[in-house]
Design goal:
- This protein has 8 helices and 33 strands.
- The mean pLDDT is about 90.
- About 10% of the residues lie in helices and about 35% in strands.
- Strand 21 and strand 22 form a beta hairpin.
- The strands form 9 sheets. The chain has a 4-stranded antiparallel β-sheet with strand order 3-2-1-27.
- With about 500 residues, the protein is mainly β.
- It starts with a strand and ends with a strand.
Amino acid sequence: MLAFVRPLSREIVLADADGRTWRGARTNAAADYVRWSPDGSALAWIDDENDPRSHDGRRLHRLDIATGRERKIPCACHGVGFLGAEVATLTSDGDALLLVGAGQGARRVPLRDPVGDYAKLAAGGRDMVTVADPLPEQEAGRGQYQLLAVDGSGTVRPFLPARAPTSMVEGLQSPDGRRVAWSSADSGGACWTYGNALLATYGRKGRQAPARPADAAMTRALLKERALVTGLAWAGDGVTVTFGPLQSCQAVPPARFVSYYLHDGKWRFIGTGMRAVGYGAQGRSARILVPPRVVPRKDEEFYIPVLGDLEFTDRHHERHALGSGVSEFAFTPGESARAPAPAPAEEPGSSGVVGTTDRGEPFPAHLRALAQRIKDAAEDDDAARLRALCGSCDNETKKAIGTAKGRRELVKLLSSHPGRKENGIVFPGLATHRCVDEPGQNITCTAEQLADIALLGIPADNDLDTYQGQIYEPSLEGRLQLRSGSGGKALWVGRIEP
């Protein structure tokens, strides 16, 4: 079974193994920490404390799936997880766990070693839950926590080594309740955050903290310096992890969201264009698709992640559109436990000249054909053919193609997206119009431009007098121009028009 959240429609929706859906619950405030019980019989969540609609106090919710009965408990508390069959949360003063079973009321379990006021229950477990307790900034730096394991008696034990710092955004217990995965977000400032995925096992020393992937997909998405974990889900013995840009600070085209499967410390690329992806039994999967264009929110709408359509694949490999405007989803632990490791996807690349400009528009076929001939000659390291094609070029270009380095750079240039120029095109298109990696601007970078920046290694030129984001524009040496001559003949004119 699958649960997903539609925040603007104010509902939590349930779906069965064949993709049939029904409303599980209405929501007033945004649902935070949506979690399944270990046996899939109940669903729990808490009102997001930052949602103005929860101004009269947060509530903890427990939904019985079989009966459809929902319990709402006023709760000055932080975080949600399941401790065995009971919903668990942490009181806002850090003094106790609150445990809610299938019966009436909540049971208070005092902690033998209380934690701080800003601690939160980060993940559930079979016999213990994970609590993230803030460490003093002078000890560990900004936004760092120690992880603690708390059992049903209130006994508190550190994840070893004790007081080891980590940032903590979201935590998830494994299907068997013995391990915890969490997303981090180490920050160097509001728009300079980089997240990763980490794992640990209850009662064991150490944690799994693999270096972030650095393959072609991550490079193409331009996520080297800053990114968030936008999706995290258990799948069998590993986790699916999606990296994406910071919505309020960076451009958010679909190709910039990159998904992986992490198992035994190794990353496996599984696709782009998804804000989150998860897997169940018998080949079932779910993914939130990033929209081609993110619709600006109304001022009165509460801040939520990029919303997208939820696509579900059933055991017959048939795809179903389950809902629009989805913020998150979760398979039951039983589904996640039986999920096979996802198959690797082919990393993005290009063998020929691309067919569109850096703004996604087509360009003349005769210019594309010439560009392909030039690229073929450069890949063959054929200087003679290049000189013949470059008869109308400037001297600097003729000199450059006579070197092996110049021919390699030529292949790169012709793998980028051109931009339109009067009576011709220029590679890359950024040479005709710069872009800024900042949302909502008249020159916000497109997906094609971001890919070209990564491909060509174009450095940022921070012009903060005009824009807050990073501005990109190639140098004169890093461009190539093609032009339509008399009679419609395509001509290579080099870097600049004579």
